[in-house]
UniProtKB/TrEMBL annotation:
GO biological process, one term: catechol-containing compound metabolic process
Protein keywords: Dioxygenase, Iron, Metal-binding, Oxidoreductase
InterPro entries: Catechol_dOase_N (IPR007535), Intradiol_dOase_C (IPR000627), Intradiol_dOase_core (IPR015889), Intradiol_RC_Dioxygenase (IPR050770)
Record keyword Iron present: yes
Regions that span the bilayer: none
Ranges where the Intradiol ring-cleavage dioxygenases domain occurs: 139-284
Taxonomic classification: Eukaryota, Fungi, Dikarya, Basidiomycota, Agaricomycotina
Keyword Metal-binding: yes
Domain Catechol dioxygenase N-terminal: 43-108
Name assigned to this protein: Aromatic compound dioxygenase
Length: 315
């Protein structure tokens, strides 16, 4: 009778080619780990690992972390993992509220070359956004106040970019993404379209609303524990791509929202705050494809992409 054993097999890596001291004191533990990190074959992996060890061990020593605090942290991260599913990314949400996502974005995509500024992806992106045609809606009827978004996708030198892909997603008027509904059957408030030969794009959506990030999981509990709110200002997400250009992940934030300057995930940049125009013209509403009513909000904004060769240059 055979028995299957999980995780108990020797991985075949030989013992290190040098002596390690017994971990009889805190510094010996750190020193041993740094020596072992030098065995990493990839130079970048070695660099990242040694810096992680340095700062993580320094944190433990500087704070005199207790066993109970360490266990509390382990249980918290375990809970984050258990909460994460294929449509709920609690780990990314944790990265967001700790400012790590925004920091990585700021370091990797500093403003420059005249391009539209980037921001974080957020935890609610999915891979099933439907393809739509110009002028069509990313939202099913009844999801919120009508909004039309239009503009052009341009290179940083002003050249229109044809056939660029624009993917967009947002919440409904209740502040929920489609993935937050247990009865989700298909994607809603999501869509993907392409620019025309002159770089133009236009599609129907709804006016975004401010909303709380999920408070029913460990990240929500963390914010409560440290006295932080969990609100995000109103916004609509965009991913814009075209061959030969740096991929842009960004959001547009309608002006006037209460939470713009204290966004729970640190993702608002001043250049991404936009003005919505009020249109009250029934003929214009029908022309743009809205099925009823006479009013809608209009967001007009060009998107500027940076050529990859230019983006690779020092900012």
């Amino acid at each position: 009778m055979s028995h299957e054993v999980h995780g108990a097999l020797y991985n075949g890596v030989p013992k290190p080619p040098f002596e390690l001291s017994y971990p009889d004191n805190p510094d010996a533990i750190t020193d041993n780990l740094m020596k072992l990190a030098d065995l990493a074959p990839d130079v970048r992996d070695k660099f990242l690992l040694k810096n992680l060890i340095t700062h993580l061990h320094a944190f433990v020593k500087e704070t005199s972390l207790s066993s109970d605090e360490w266990l509390k942290a382990i249980k918290f991260l375990t809970s984050v993992g258990h909460t994460t599913t294929n449509i709920r990314q609690e780990f990314m949400l944790l990265s967001d509220v700790m400012g790590v996502s925004a920091l990585v974005d700021a370091i990797n995509f500093p403003p420059g070359h005249g391009g539209t500024e980037s921001t974080i992806l957020g935890p609610f992106h999915t891979d099933d956004a439907p393809d739509i045609e110009q002028g069509q809606s990313i939202a099913s009827e009844g999801k919120g106040e009508y909004m039309y978004i239009e503009g052009r996708v341009l290179s940083s030198d002003g050249t229109p970019i044809s056939n660029a892909t624009i993917e967009s997603w947002e919440t409904d008027s209740n502040g929920y993404y489609d993935t937050q509904y247990v009865n989700r059957e298909k994607a809603d408030l999501r869509g993907r379209l392409r620019t025309d030969k002159d770089g133009h794009f236009g599609f129907r959506a709804i006016v975004p609303v401010a909303y709380p990030i999920p408070g029913d999981g460990p990240v929500g509990q963390l914010l409560l524990a440290v006295g932080r709110h969990n609100m995000r200002p109103n916004h609509i997400h965009l991913i814009v791509e075209a061959p030969g250009f740096r991929k842009l992940i960004t959001m547009f934030y309608p002006e006037g929202d209460t939470w713009l300057e204290s966004d729970a995930v640190f993702a608002v940049k001043k250049s991404l705050v936009v003005k919505l125009q009020e249109v009250n013209d029934e003929a214009e509403a029908r022309k743009r494809g809205f099925p009823k009513g006479s009013s809608f909000k209009l967001l007009q904004r060009d998107v500027i992409l940076v050529p990859e060769k230019q983006a690779d240059l020092k900012q």
